[in-house]
Automatic annotation (TrEMBL):
Highest taxon of source: Bacteria
Residues annotated with N6-(pyridoxal phosphate)lysine modification: 57
GO MF annotations in UniProt: pyridoxal phosphate binding
Entry protein name: Pyridoxal phosphate homeostasis protein
Species of provenance: Hyphomicrobium sulfonivorans
Residue ranges of every copy of the Alanine racemase N-terminal domain listed in the record: 47-248
Cofactor: pyridoxal 5'-phosphate
Record-linked Pfam families: Ala_racemase_N
Role noted for this protein: Pyridoxal 5'-phosphate (PLP)-binding protein, which is involved in PLP homeostasis.
Keywords, sorted A to Z: Pyridoxal phosphate
Amino-acid biosynthesis recorded as keyword: no
InterPro entries linked to this entry: Ala_racemase_N (IPR001608), PLP-binding_barrel (IPR029066), PyrdxlP_homeostasis (IPR011078)
Family: Belongs to the pyridoxal phosphate-binding protein YggS/PROSC family.
Length: 266
């Protein structure tokens, strides 16, 4: 990208992302990729089995042009409206939008117009509405079934006991192409509690695959815990802050009811 494009950045963008965002994003990507590779090596896995899904929420659209310039093509967004606005602003770029956050059924009609993946399928109602709208668009959608593995009421997702009955009925929605299961681990400094969430998801995935063989993938792990997730079998890690820097907004905006952990627990 040429220097003239930097005129697109506001003073606030430059304060947050620096004057050379493509360079710093590329450097951060390299660091995250080598951490992924090291976690794979420790756990006897191939780095090819782990996909890095960069999470671009709160990064403004003009800055995302630099993320694209740094080589990122899959953009993970938690909120549909934010993703929609960015898709409109960046329509000239060949981006795969991956919606990773809770979706209200009344937003499904927007999602099916532009999203490539959806990681937060958590109800029959949503599956029905997605299938119906996808059918109208004559297209399919890759989906992950979200599971609440931490037992926290603030987290979205199916209860673990409901996963197998849910998966047994996925064939009723032929436009949905199930890829695997997704979770957010507990926000805790206690590594074993975090690990327990990831192990639970893996056990559920193994049982779900017996019912629906396409459910091979585990979407789990974020900036604070992706190495633990990889040790426990993650195939997709959703990483935002380790690539784009700390977010200025509270995560409670994305996870309603979240009680923020103490700073030293992050
Ligand atoms: C924001 C978000 C992430 C990434 O979190 P970071 O701390 O930025 O790595 C992962 N998954 C979901 C569902 C998110 O909303």
């Amino acid at each position: 990208m040429t220097t003239s494009h930097r005129a697109d950045l506001s003073a606030a963008d430059i304060a947050r992302f620096g004057a050379e965002p493509a360079t710093s994003f590329a450097a951060n990507l390299q660091t995250v990729r080598s951490r992924i590779a090291a976690a794979c090596l420790r756990s006897g896995r191939s780095p090819d089995d782990v996909r890095l899904l960069p999470v671009t929420k709160t990064v403004p659209a003009p800055v995302l042009r630099y993320a694209f310039a740094a080589g990122i093509r899959d953009f993970g967004e938690n909120k549909l409206q934010e993703a929609r606005d960015k898709n409109a602003a960046l329509a000239d770029l060949d981006i795969r939008w991956c919606i990773i956050g809770h979706l209200q059924t009344n937003k499904v009609k927007y999602l099916v117009r532009f999203a490539s993946e959806f990681h937060a399928l958590d109800s029959f109602r949503l599956a029905e509405e997605l299938n119906r709208r996808l059918e109208a668009q004559e297209r399919d959608l890759d989906v992950f079934v979200q599971v609440n593995t931490s037992g926290e009421p603030s987290k979205y997702g199916l209860q673990p006991a409901d996963v197998i009955p849910f998966v047994e009925r996925l064939a009723e929605f032929p436009r949905l192409k199930p890829q695997g299961l997704m979770t957010l681990a507990i926000f805790s400094a206690d590594v074993e509690r975090v690990r327990t969430c990831f192990r639970l998801l893996r056990d559920l995935r193994d049982r779900a695959m017996a019912v629906h063989p396409a459910l091979t993938q585990l979407s789990m792990g974020m900036s604070g815990d992706f190495e633990i997730a990889i040790e426990e079998g993650a195939n997709v890690v959703r990483v935002g802050q380790a690539i784009f820097g700390a977010r200025p907004t509270s995560d409670a905006h994305y996870w309603p009811g979240l009680i923020a952990p103490e700073p030293d627990q992050q």
